[in-house]
Amino acid sequence: MQAVVLREFGSAEVLRPGVVPDPAAEPGWVTVRLEAAALNWHDVLVRRGQYRSPLPHVLGADGAGVRTDTGEDVVIVPSLWWGDDESAPGARFEILGDHRPGTYAELVRVPADCLAPRPAGYSWAEAAALPLVGLTTYRALFTRARLRAGESLLVLGAGGGVATTAVALASGVGASVVVTSSSRVKIDQARALGASGGVLYAEAGWERAAKELSPGGCGFDVVLDPVGAWPEALAALRPGGRLVVLGASAAEHARVDVRKFYFGQYSLLGTTMGSPRDFAGLLRLLDEHSIAPPVIDRAFPLAEAAAAHRHLEQGGGFGKVVLLHG
């Protein structure tokens, strides 16, 4: 089958079209003929060698296509072997595309319980863009932070897939949402998704400016931090608020005033991509509320995966980058 093959770790240019064997049949696993795949920053880290994937390798966690055994339209849930404990993934957990061939190919083979129906009305690109960011964001906001209608949410770094999904999901269930961004254009785009406003994080004191946009200026119930800005995020919370952390793209270490933390009665919640049961909860949420599909920033043909990775790494986009297989 045709695929994009990683034969060495490095820059985007190491992603080249090639031919690899079709997936072999295996009991309990299903082959999907892919129509689209979506990029995630996780793919960039795999490409760079951070996850020590076997070489040659096919990247890609997200995808949507047609089951070859039943003809059903499906999306792929890239959470493999989460385990029975919903509080955290088990020792066998891995993300599709880390060590097993992923979705940058015509075909992919996954466990049968890692498939879900394509949501009604979703294009192939939108369906492919949903799983990883949808699952990650749903777990962060609803399983971990317990966000409810009527509460307030600050999303750090509007523009990426998690941030745009967070705005859509939170506003869709009746929470008020404010974002931070590097540009006024992205803030306006977030408003179109349901945010009430935003602040520029490059400006000094942005956390105070954001807090002023919270209900009564008292701080947010929840701050979603995919970047690692803990001190500023805590400063934007109300007393007793929850900081939920799912990334460290800007900083891998943080200094926190311990006394202020415990006197503020804050909760600090770490989270990662969720379980198949979280994904079932996401699909129920989409059925019960009017929530826009994932925002597509740009689509590339599968053979142009290197260009898609360059576009993702340059930043500046709003929404998801996808690969179309047709």
TrEMBL record:
<dbReference type="InterPro" id="IPR013149">
    <property type="entry name" value="ADH-like_C"/>
</dbReference>
<dbReference type="InterPro" id="IPR052711">
    <property type="entry name" value="Zinc_ADH-like"/>
</dbReference>
<protein>
    <submittedName>
        <fullName>NADPH:quinone reductase-like Zn-dependent oxidoreductase</fullName>
    </submittedName>
</protein>
<dbReference type="InterPro" id="IPR020843">
    <property type="entry name" value="ER"/>
</dbReference>
<dbReference type="Pfam" id="PF00107">
    <property type="entry name" value="ADH_zinc_N"/>
</dbReference>
<dbReference type="InterPro" id="IPR036291">
    <property type="entry name" value="NAD(P)-bd_dom_sf"/>
</dbReference>
<dbReference type="Pfam" id="PF08240">
    <property type="entry name" value="ADH_N"/>
</dbReference>
<dbReference type="InterPro" id="IPR011032">
    <property type="entry name" value="GroES-like_sf"/>
</dbReference>
<feature type="domain" description="Enoyl reductase (ER)">
    <location>
        <begin position="10"/>
        <end position="323"/>
    </location>
</feature>
<dbReference type="GO" id="GO:0016491">
    <property type="term" value="F:oxidoreductase activity"/>
</dbReference>
<dbReference type="InterPro" id="IPR013154">
    <property type="entry name" value="ADH-like_N"/>
</dbReference>
